[in-house]
Amino acid sequence: MTIKDIARLSGYSIGTVSRVINRHPDVSEEAREKILKIIEQENYQPNANAKHLKQSRNTAVTVIVKGTRNIFLNSILEKIQQYLRKYQEEASVVFVEESENEVRQAIQLETERNPKGFIFLGGALEHFRTDFHMIKAPSVLISGWAKDLGFDNLSSFSTDDFEGGRQAMEMLVNNGHRNVLIVGGFNSKEPEQVSSQRLNGALSVLKEHDIPFERDRQYIECRFSMQDSYEKLMDRLPVEQDITAIFGLSDLVAVGAMRAVHDSGRTVPDDISIIGYDGIGYTDYTVPRLSTVRQNVDELVAQGVDDLLYRIQYPREAVHRQISAAAVSKESIISIA
Amino acid sequence: MTIKDIARLSGYSIGTVSRVINRHPDVSEEAREKILKIIEQENYQPNANAKHLKQSRNTAVTVIVKGTRNIFLNSILEKIQQYLRKYQEEASVVFVEESENEVRQAIQLETERNPKGFIFLGGALEHFRTDFHMIKAPSVLISGWAKDLGFDNLSSFSTDDFEGGRQAMEMLVNNGHRNVLIVGGFNSKEPEQVSSQRLNGALSVLKEHDIPFERDRQYIECRFSMQDSYEKLMDRLPVEQDITAIFGLSDLVAVGAMRAVHDSGRTVPDDISIIGYDGIGYTDYTVPRLSTVRQNVDELVAQGVDDLLYRIQYPREAVHRQISAAAVSKESIISIA
DNA sequence: CTGAAAGCGCTTACAG
DNA sequence: CTGAAAGCGCTTACAG
Lengths: 337, 337
What we know:
Chain A is an alpha/beta fold. Helices cover 44% and strands 15% of the residues of chain A.
């Protein structure tokens, strides 16, 4: 079943059929209806290769996952693929190490494969700032905030991370914790980075309560991985005998922290309370269960993918939206008030 | 830069250039060398759309992941993508729920997109047995054993799961455990299913040691997820006061089991020792650290992908290979000998 | 608003 | 072993 068959069946030329398929305006209502009906009847699917030969665009949306072994991003990826599938869209996927520049990778992919759109899962804003202007395809950043970069082909959908950070810290403070460690991310450079937002939200709560926080000592940078969190904390916990709580800026960081607390001879939550961020399923099965700030992954994915598919069809300006999160209290926090 | 440019630069026709690119035998050594040199010089990449328009094959390899929220399969997926990338190959990915028929999905995808090859990550042998004959593209099953199905376009690479199951149970038995529960998978139907292999390996060890095992009572079916394992064991643990060890047929199952043991008022490993299977990174961060049978993911991926790419180029018969695994002892097992 | 035709970049019988 | 040419299924100026 090709465009030729549809043309024959409808009595119009292949040119007109093509115009109908591509929503070209200069087609009579009559022709459009008749042709659409036949396309439907015959369950005709245009050949993507032929289409993109002309347009020299690839048929797939390319998803770029920044970071490996990241359970949270993997769970988003699953949802994205399943959501795209509903619209018969193909998801091509590329995993980029945290140390690599994901935008440069995308630039290279655009030359090699020319995907019709990019979805970035996570990412370093500095790379977007310096390199994204080279990207032409409609793109969306999920779990990141690109509004202030001002690219007209880059939308972004993220959790309201400042507010999420606030909620996490409020939960600790409300339980009487005044001496906390915050762990995760690298926040010197980009204030819009998700980890900075979460950190700043948390700090704003401390400030409101007049709780002192020595940033150099009490904020610990590390990758969003169990391993890095664990190693950094194994170094620091021995010299931090007074802290009563840890806010891990991602669940993986919090899980690494739980293990480090244990290995440094203290107990969660009796000696140290812990809260994470993301809401990965695993937080229900740790011992103790991990309190966390649950991101609304379904909403992030639905809005992000909808926006991208729309902009692939009908160019319009990028949109930026924040989705609210909710802290969830579990066994890993005790009240010391 | 198109095939035309290469033809012009080399002095040969585009037909000959095309033959060189596609490794067609009927080309003189002289022409081949000259053309390859120019291709190299100019860094020419054939246009995949044009190529596949003719061959009407999609440019991507489609990876079908059987199961969502499966950390182990996600980690394999990451490696597969990175490995394919090295060869400039595109990975299109589809996640299929455990309850769905992954082979029927593939059949549909083959009609819609005609990928040049399929990689199945995990899967139910019964679906392969009944439906795979409809698949034409070269395929490989990773983490599954398809040798006995005898399809000539389906290779398979798996861990030697019988041996892996043996190692896990030997570790328990050597530590004095004689009253164990084995949890995970659905083993009534397919003896070649990975879970059956692991189970049978474990049972063979018990038999050698003359340790009794009431299969109906001591083997518990469940999905390879934390949640299902947790729920099944919360039901069963109260009535199993005598057991001293649990073998989870996947790490996720073992993690769910750890939590269930805890919630039923017992302690790991003091009351109940636990060993898992797969070797996901998380086993290093649980409290206590989880003993497991580590699968050699790098090897599975390297061999599986190499075989598939080779067979896409040069049809040959499917290969089936088992890769050895190694049990790793950690804190979740104590000796009661 | 519509059709006829050129052309996208490649592969592959066919003829030599 | 090689070239000329048809054709894969589509899009899009061009002419009407």
